[in-house]
Amino acid sequence: IGARSAAAAMAASTAAGKQRIPKVAKVKNKAPAEVQITAEQLLREAKERELELLPPPPQQKITDEEELNDYKLRKRKTFEDNIRKNRTVISNWIKYAQWEESLKEIQRARSIYERALDVDYRNITLWLKYAEMEMKNRQVNHARNIWDRAITTLPRVNQFWYKYTYMEEMLGNIAGARQVFERWMEWQPEEQAWHSYINFELRYKEVDRARTIYERFVLVHPDVKNWIKYARFEEKHGYFAHARKVYERAVEFFGDEHMDEHLYVAFAKFEENQKEFERVRVIYKYALDRISKQDAQELFKNYTIFEKKFGDRRGIEDIIVSKRRFQYEEEVKANPHNYDAWFDYLRLVESDAEAETVREVYERAIANVPPIQEKRHWKRYIYLWVNYALYEELEAKDPERTRQVYQASLELIPHKKFTFAKMWLLYAQFEIRQKNLPFARRALGTSIGKCPKNKLFKGYIELELQLREFDRCRKLYEKFLEFGPENCTSWIKFAELETILGDIERARAIYELAISQPRLDMPEVLWKSYIDFEIEQEETERTRNLYRRLLQRTQHVKVWISFAQFELSSGKEGSLAKCRQIYEEANKTMRNCEEKEERLMLLESWRSFEDEFGTVSDKERVDKLMPEKVKKRRKVQADDGSDAGWEEYYDYIFPEDAANQPNLKLLAMAKLWKKQQQEKEAAEQDPDKDIDESES
């Protein structure tokens, strides 16, 4: 029975427990709410409502010693618990010691600091707080003891040394401070520590002691700036001989391998202050000769300023030229084929140096022959030879050397691959200036034999023309035309020469020979020159025959127009009729021409002629021949053959073309229909206006 009752009680309790569990409500609408609440909004509301702010603890007033002891006990227990939880948190130790110090419990505070040092003796803040507590409470010997322990334990912490020496100096214990400094210097600290020691001695006028410290300092830290500071220290205190000796020792100490421009600049400025200008100049020149110029920019600058202040004009120019010369030397050394740098360098040298120096630089420059035998690589290089020759002729006044330069350059150029006509012509002109005409002709003849070029022929012919050697000119033109029969300019010049000489038949024969050539570079220019030649000779029939021969070769519209204008300008009887006849013939000939713009150009020229000289009927006749301008569309293909859309263009429809007559009729009907449609739309848009008009 007991077992059954227990089971029943358990079942009842279980049922009651099941009944007490609340049912989880099913969320039917799972869509997001319209107003979303962010975490930032929750934090801001908490801040505004001050939910996390705790009220300040109530202030307690201690009235008797028992309450004070009780407060101390609670507080110490709290501090000790914090320390016990985490011994390595030094801030807990410092707070504890400072609290004891505030209660004037110095001995307890010392004990706490000592316990903390046992935990972490490397903590700098701990030592500083400990020593500050002793100094604050005027416990000088205790403070000395702490500083001694600190610098012994951590000798590389400069802050301890600074504080220790400062304390001893404030106490007036100069000897003790000096002793601390000496102990510090044994560790060879950084530069600022040495400066602090020197400044300490200078505060008490101990210049000799400061000098001794500087002697040790420049050996421990042998930097240029430290030697300069040492010398300036001597200069500041009036020991100029000592300062000069320091600079000289520094120059000797660094030697030629580790030279620094700043040392020499400082040395020179010191001597400048002492009015030793010759010494200054020697120092600058000594340094500039030994220091690489890219590392001596400041040295150059100061030397220039010094020369401007105390030197003459020659000295200033020398320093500027030497500086620029060095820059160019560096450039050509880095890239010997940088011909632009050579040009600048030579220009500088020519303006200042002697002839031998200039020749030496020119020889160095021309020795850098382009490695590839391609003309584009030689174009800049050849001007070195040109300038060299011009220098020898105009500046050095040495014709023999000039001739040697020209000959050497012409031997160097690979004439089988390319040549430079400029060099041949300059050499020939030089020989003419030297009154050596056979040498000039020999040079130009050699050039034409080795490497004939249009420019060489033209230059040689121009030379002979100036010398009035016309037979030689004829021979040269013959050679020239054998070399390049397609050159129309040469034919024209040859014919013009014969015309000037009065040999008209020879000139005409040259023109005939020229137009019979199978290939010409500018045939239109040649034909025009031939026609102009015949017009000048007033050979009308020959000119007319030339036009007819030209029209057999080309039906260009400009030829027809020129022919018509020639007939008009001939001034003979029937010239107008002949001109009109040519226009009619041209119009018939050009009906089959695909270039409609050219045909239109002809008709416009004809119309302008009829406007000036024709009758009304003639004008109407030409006007009837004028085409109508029509806008059309056509397909455009891209480079790859795909369609690129449509484009609009203007076409010309001529009334004479029978094939275009139906198109013209259709076009006229389309225009009439479009006009009627526009009138109809206008009438529909404004019916009231039509009613008013009918009533009126």
TrEMBL record:
Pre-mRNA-splicing factor Syf1/CRNKL1-like C-terminal HAT-repeats domain boundaries: 91-375, 395-554
Localization per Swiss-Prot or TrEMBL: Nucleus speckle
Pfam family, one: HAT_Syf1_CNRKL1_C
One example of a Gene Ontology biological process annotation: spliceosomal complex assembly
Biased composition (Basic and acidic residues): 676-688
Entry keywords, A to Z: Coiled coil, mRNA processing, mRNA splicing, Nucleus, Phosphoprotein, Repeat, Spliceosome
InterPro entries recorded: HAT, HAT_Syf1_CNRKL1_C, Syf1-like, TPR-like_helical_dom_sf
Chloroplast is among the record's keywords: no
GO cellular component: nuclear speck; post-mRNA release spliceosomal complex; precatalytic spliceosome; Prp19 complex; U2-type catalytic step 2 spliceosome
Region (Disordered): 675-696
Family: Belongs to the crooked-neck family.
Protein name: Crooked neck-like protein 1
Organism expressing this protein natively: Mustela putorius furo (European domestic ferret)
